[in-house]
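Researcher: Quick test of sequence recovery. Tokens follow.
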């Protein structure tokens, strides 16, 4: 069952097919009978880490509602002829589909280790002792000013406990600061991928860390690594 006449449907299907073939030649397939009742659509299917298919994004071409509501507008062609009006085409667009479902797919696909640019827990700053809490807060503020999601653990737990809590919470990076880091305006960087490592991590200047984390965030790289 469908709305409208078959000529309108044929025209809409041809437009979508032409666009797909022009932009993604040979990378799409026709699924007869799977359109919405008011018009044809493009469904985008993604695969997760377990090779399962999920249909999320969809773009639907709707000639019917503008027709039923008798929608019209005056375009550039009406400049010389005010009586000339054009009927619009409605585009239904859902980029993520159901947001909750998409977040579930993404979380399962990454096993909870979200890429840095989409992670709600990008950086955790941990002072090694009470005298360095102010510097930890200063580091966090610098990163927040750069548009990053940052937390500071200035609680009473021991340093190993704070680091372990950060690892369990899946922070992408844990920045440890102490006397040496404060004097040199640096941070000790622990990568999420180095869980359980006891060795002292790399110490990097704070300005450099801000630049590298901002780049990782802006470029939306999947690898959790500072370049």
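Model:
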């Amino acid at each position: 069952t469908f709305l409208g006449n078959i000529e309108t449907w044929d025209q809409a299907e041809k437009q979508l097919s032409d666009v797909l073939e022009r932009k993604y030649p040979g990378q799409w397939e026709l699924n007869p009978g799977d359109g919405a009742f008011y018009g044809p659509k493009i469904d985008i299917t993604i695969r997760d880490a377990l090779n399962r298919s999920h249909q999320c994004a969809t773009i639907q071409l709707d000639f019917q509602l503008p027709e039923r509501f008798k929608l019209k507008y005056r375009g550039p062609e009406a400049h010389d002829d005010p009586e000339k009006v054009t009927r619009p085409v409605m585009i239904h667009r859902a980029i993520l589909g159901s947001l909750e479902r998409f977040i579930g797919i993404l979380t399962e696909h990454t096993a909870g280790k979200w890429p840095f640019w989409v992670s709600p827990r990008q950086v955790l700053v941990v002072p090694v002792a009470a005298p360095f809490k102010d510097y930890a807060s200063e580091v966090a503020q610098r990163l927040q000013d750069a548009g990053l999601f940052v937390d500071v653990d200035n609680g009473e737990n021991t340093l190993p406990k704070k680091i372990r809590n950060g690892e369990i919470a899946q922070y992408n990076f844990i920045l440890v600061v102490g006397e040496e880091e404060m004097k040199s305006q640096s941070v000790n960087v622990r990568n999420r991928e180095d869980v359980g490592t006891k060795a002292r991590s790399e110490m990097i200047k704070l300005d450099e860390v801000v630049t590298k984390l901002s780049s990782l965030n802006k470029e939306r790289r999947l690898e959790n690594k500072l370049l």
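The two ends are 55 Å apart (CA to CA).
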